[in-house]
Write a structure and sequence with these properties.
By secondary structure, the chain is α+β, with helices and mostly antiparallel strands. The protein folds into three domains: 1-72 and 196-394, BirA Bifunctional Protein, domain 2; 86-194, no CATH class; 409-515, 3-Layer(aba) Sandwich (Rossmann fold). The chain has 18 helices and 23 strands. Strand 22 (481-486) and strand 23 (492-496) form a beta hairpin. Bound molecules: glycyl-adenosine-5'-phosphate.
């Protein structure tokens, strides 16, 4: 499936099969806000469970919390979000369309990358097996010129972004001849900073004093609870605190479905370490987090690290794990070495000590922090893009047919096993199928369905990613055996109904993900 096609299909599949709906659709929707439907919420819960088990339950030295969304407004002053959590905004004067100035430049850079890759692909086709890609990339004049252009723009963008050089950023957009995709004009406003935090007001305090923010990251709830958690759990460094929860950002460019949302969910873990040991742990978590993705079956070639040139105000090293989304390689997860910035700032602004007493060194200090941070929704999009497949399968009477199948890892699948009577209008078959469903529903999420012909029922279960279908037929009534059909291989086997739970459990158990 072509990448463009895949993205459209993922979006329509999500709606058609009850994974994701546009929020407030009956009122024409609310931009960049989405609701998860029956299968979407199951998949989302499974993703969160996989993360929680692997981060919290698999580590003796990581504990979980669930902090409030509303926090004291000073927290966002200390964290730097009030002053520095900005995106550079630019408007096109003709279309009135608003853009992120840095994203306009990044999109321009993406086009150069596409040109380079096209050049390589053309040469590969021309030279066949004799093609040496490394040599071609290092000698072809057109590739070299484009690489140089790309790198120059990248360096300038990094400089303008980290030093807030907004005039230079506008000049770069003009120099590159970037036009608005709606009006086609290059008639741009000045670039200005736009703070991404949503604010609201406490009912009992008027004015600035009562101003509250919706948290733009869950991490601060961890930082301000660092000492509470350390003391109540008696953890020794290094140790981590994990949390899953909603975050809110007033994104300027909020497109690409659930990739960039205004209300989303994060899974974050702050790992507190001795100062000076942060780089060791930074590398450790980069490696561990990549393995987490690979265990799900995400192809290695679709994942890559991207080191930040443009470090956030709190970090001394940062990398993204990028996934090859249908619209190209983009950030899926961030791993950041946040130094002691946050704890120090909270210590200063609150006047309370946030220090750890190290019994081995016999001294107090503010720990350094390595953070892993992934958006649940981005992970959802990654899992769906990876899993949605259209394939040709053998049909009845030797004819081939196409099926749409969601090849999710069985541990993530929303429904683990569907029980389907061969005929919907035979009370004996439907009664037996219901009895089997009522038996297995205690073990995992199962589904009973008699709403169509068996072929249609299989197709529907394939489309929602159900790893096993059980067919109840006339033989079942005689000997208590059923046909169990495996989603990916389409293999069918006859087993006793007492074996169903054992067979299904083996495949859906999250334990395999940790072994893998
Ligand atoms: N605490 C660090 C932090 O929040 P970030 O790189 O801004 O770092 C971490 O965000 C992750 O949260 C991203 O890698 C992404 O998966 C997710 N994320 C960030 N903004 C998002 C948005 N607007 N919509 C969906 N997911 C988002």
């Amino acid at each position: 499936m072509a990448q463009d096609d895949l993205f459209k299909k993922v979006i329509s599949h999500c709606k058609e099969y009850g994974f994701i709906y546009q929020s407030s659709e009956v009122y024409d929707g609310l931009s960049a806000v989405y609701d998860y439907g029956p299968y979407g919420s199951e998949l989302k819960n499974n993703l969160k469970q996989y993360w929680w088990k692997s981060m919290v339950q698999m580590h003796e030295n990581i504990v979980g919390i669930d902090s409030a969304i509303f926090m004291h407004p000073k927290i966002w002053k200390a964290s730097g979000h009030v002053d520095a959590f900005n995106d550079p905004l630019i408007d096109n004067k003709d279309s009135k369309k608003r853009y992120r100035a840095d994203v306009l430049v990044e999109n321009f850079m993406d086009k150069i990358e596409v040109k380079i890759n096209k050049e390589v692909a053309k040469a590969k086709k021309r030279f066949g097996d004799a093609f040496d890609e490394v040599q071609f990339r290092s000698t072809n004049p057109r590739v070299l010129a484009n690489v140089e252009k790309y790198n120059t723009i990248k360096d300038r963008l990094a400089d303008y972004m980290s030093n807030s050089k907004l005039d230079e950023l506008k000049a770069l957009i003009e120099e590159l001849g970037i036009a608005c995709e709606v009006s086609g004009s290059k008639n741009w406003t000045e670039v200005r900073q736009f703070n991404l935090m949503f604010s609201t007001q406490l009912g009992n305090i008027a004015g600035e004093e009562g101003k509250l923010y919706l948290r733009p990251e869950t991490a601060q709830g961890i930082f301000v609870n660092f000492l509470n958690v350390q003391k109540s759990t008696r953890q020794k460094l290094p140790f981590g605190i994990a949390q899953i929860g909603k975050a809110f950002r007033n994104e300027i460019v909020a497109r690409q479905f659930i990739f960039r949302m205004r209300e989303f969910e994060q899974m974050e873990m702050q790992f507190f370490v001795r100062p000076g040991e942060e780089m060791k742990w930074y590398e450790y978590w980069k490696d561990a987090r990549l393995k987490w993705h690979l265990a799900l079956g995400t192809p290695e070639e679709n994942l890559r690290f991207h080191d930040h040139d443009n470090l956030a105000h709190y970090a001394n090293a940062a990398a993204d794990i990028q996934y090859n989304f249908p619209f190209g390689f983009k950030e899926l997860e961030g791993i950041h070495s946040r130094t002691d910035f946050d704890l120090n700032s909270h210590q200063e602004l609150s006047g309370r000590k946030l220090q750890y007493f190290d019994p081995e060194l016999n001294e107090n200090y503010v720990p350094f922090v390595v953070e892993t941070s992934i958006g649940v929704d981005r992970m959802f999009l990654c899992a769906m893009s990876n899993a949605l497949v259209e394939e040709v399968v053998p049909g009845t009477e030797g004819k081939e047919s196409t099926r749409v199948v969601l090849k999710l890892h069985p541990a993530l699948a929303p429904v683990k096993c569907a029980v389907l009577p061969l005929k919907r209008n035979d009370d004996n078959l439907t009664g037996k199928a219901r009895a089997i469903f009522n038996k297995i529903k205690y073990s995992f999420n199962a589904q009973y369905d008699d709403s169509g012909s068996i072929g249609k029922l299989y197709r529907r279960q394939d489309a929602i990613g159900t790893p096993y279908c059980i067919t109840v037929d006339f033989e079942t009534l005689e000997d208590d055996t059923v046909t169990i059909r495996e989603r990916d291989s389409l293999a069918q086997e006859r087993i006793h109904i007492d074996k169903i739970e054992e067979v299904v459990r083996q495949r859906i158990d999250m334990k395999q993900l940790f072994v893998e």
